[in-house]
Design a protein that fits this description.
It contains 22 helices and 2 strands. With 507 residues, the chain is mainly alpha-helical. Strands 1-2 form a two-stranded antiparallel ribbon. Strand 1 (184-185) and strand 2 (192-193) form a beta hairpin. Helix 4 runs antiparallel to helix 15 and helix 6 (106-142) runs parallel beside helix 14.
Length: 507
């Protein structure tokens, strides 16, 4: 099937009323939850996930991708207007966005943020379209059972990057996901494991109750816990967006282009995410600026650099998610979960088995960024009223939708107990500063690793490992990357301790 035919078929699926309506609803909802402090992208995606069960593939992905795009942008609104980043990646935008607002330039700051998000989000979509296909075809050409097993191991090793600065706690969180993924029937022998007599989990713990407990329920518990310690919001009144002129935009084209390239590249690296991209781009913009002293005081470059970067992450992060089945960041882990729930296996066969659907995802991301401008105008106009929603109403709605989603997956009341139990454990993790994303990554990838490793054991038979590995050089490369991902944080920790000790022992 040639590219023209694929494009026409994808357009026929995307440009129909239901996907477009759901895409806009997702963008609007994502922008709303991204703008409300303490919620953010992961919660927005998790709340939407149960509703995709009632939809066909394309409408389901339209809802999730729209929410993904909107939530990444929405955090910047709160960052600029109330000095509270709605999402972690918006913390970099906050450094200069709020000072601009204090100087009476809130509308200008929002305009720069919106244009940067839309322009470089679209740029990342074209990178996705260009890179995902060749990468998947290359992987499929050389990928056997051992290569796929090593690739999944690389995805599991990305837990170390998701746990940056908190490695032991991140590994513990990942172990929690692995343990829960082993509950139920063994994929090879069909024996029951760790069910403790509860036949409701004989087929395993369903992904949806696990995700719902891990993110929205734990978030609700945590918000209730800290509700009385949150400061009162001081809202800068701004009900419009002033977009920059073409002359103003082109005067800063190199700053935004550099930031977008950084964001796209970091997005392609599995397990990194938007927050590192935003702060790296901010630092590089400051280093390259002719007026670095203006940063932190309301610099326009300090606003557009992180914004261009973390929105460019979206297309980049989707490359390993679609082409290799490895989530690019915590948010795309939920996109990966959506594919899995809809019985679509992401990875090396996706581009070959479902090319029309993959091209549809390209178009959905592209249209979502175009719709983002309209959603931004609507949200800015109503932000002051939204931020004053009573916490009881907001948290109550999240609980209702979450528990409904946990139940409708299998119409199993036991899943409500699982969601609640996972939520309580995840709440404990939050209190102890344990990252939650590693638990989700390991829960999704561990069963696939177990199954593929069993295949490798059958294919290898009595062949010695050195001989078997010598016949699979691509798998060896993947395993070297796994080793690097595992050793790198240990080396960094050792260096850090040496610096501390040398500083302590210095006269």
């Amino acid at each position: 099937m040639d590219v023209v035919q694929l494009t026409l078929e994808a357009c026929a699926l995307v440009f129909t009323p239901l996907p477009l309506i759901l895409l806009f609803c997702g963008v609007l909802f994502g922008t709303l939850l991204g703008a409300l402090p303490g919620l953010g992208s992961i919660l927005a995606l998790t709340v939407c996930l149960p509703f995709t069960l009632m939809l066909d593939h394309i409408p389901a992905f339209a809802l999730m991708l729209g929410t993904y795009v909107g939530s990444l942008y929405g955090g910047s609104i709160a960052s600029i207007l109330i000095n509270v980043p709605g999402t972690p990646q918006a913390a970099a935008t906050n450094l200069d966005g709020y000072p601009m607002a204090l100087a009476g330039k809130a509308a200008e700051a929002l305009g720069w943020v919106t244009v940067s998000a839309v322009a470089w989000g679209i740029f990342s979509c074209f990178v996705l379209a260009a890179a995902a296909g060749p990468l998947a075809h290359l992987s499929n050409k050389y990928a056997g059972p051992l290569e796929i097993c090593a690739l999944i191991a690389m995805g599991l090793a990305c837990i170390t990057t998701l746990s940056e600065g908190n490695l032991i706690k991140g590994l513990f969180s990942g172990l929690f996901g692995v343990l829960l993924s082993t509950v139920g029937m063994d994929p090879i022998s069909s024996e029951l494991r760790f069910t403790f007599g509860f036949m409701s989990v004989a087929s395993g713990i369903d992904m949806l109750p696990f995700i719902i407990g891990l993110f929205p329920l734990s978030e609700v518990f945590h918000r209730i816990y800290e509700i009385y310690t949150l400061p009162d919001y001081v809202i800068i009144q701004c009900h419009k967006i002033r977009f920059p002129s073409l002359r103003e935009w082109f005067a800063r084209k190199w700053v935004t282009l550099r930031s977008a390239v950084i964001g796209t590249f970091i997005g392609i690296l599995p397990g990194t995410g938007a927050s590192p991209a935003a702060f790296i781009s901010y630092s590089m913009a400051r280093e390259a600026s002719s007026h670095p002293e203006d940063f932190g005081k309301g610099s326009v470059e300090g606003v557009i650099a992180p914004e261009a970067s973390h929105n460019a992450v979206t297309g980049g992060a989707m490359v390993p998610t679609l082409a290799l089945g490895i989530p690019g960041d915590a948010e795309t882990t939920l996109i990966l979960a959506t594919l899995t729930i809809h019985q679509i296996t992401p990875g090396v066969r996706l581009m070959l088995d479902n090319p029309v659907m993959v091209h549809s995802i390209f178009f959905l991301l592209l249209i979502a960024y175009i719709m983002l401008t309209v959603a931004a105008i609507i949200m800015v106009r109503s932000f002051g009223r939204l931020i004053r929603l009573p916490n009881a109403v907001l948290l109550g709605l999240i609980i209702v939708f979450s528990m409904l989603g946990a139940f409708i997956a299998r119409n199993n009341y036991f899943d409500l107990l699982i969601a609640l139990a996972v939520g309580l454990v995840a709440f404990g993790f939050r209190l102890g500063n344990f990252p939650l994303a590693p638990a989700l990554v390991s829960f999704i990838l561990a069963p696939q690793f177990e199954y593929r490793y069993s295949q490798v054991a059958i294919y290898r038979a009595d062949t010695p490992w050195p001989v078997y590995l010598a016949d699979h050089p691509l798998a060896c490369i993947f395993l070297v990357v796994v080793l690097f991902l595992l050793i790198r944080p240990v080396v960094k920790s050792v260096r850090k301790w040496r610096e501390v000790l040398s500083h302590h022992n210095a006269p």
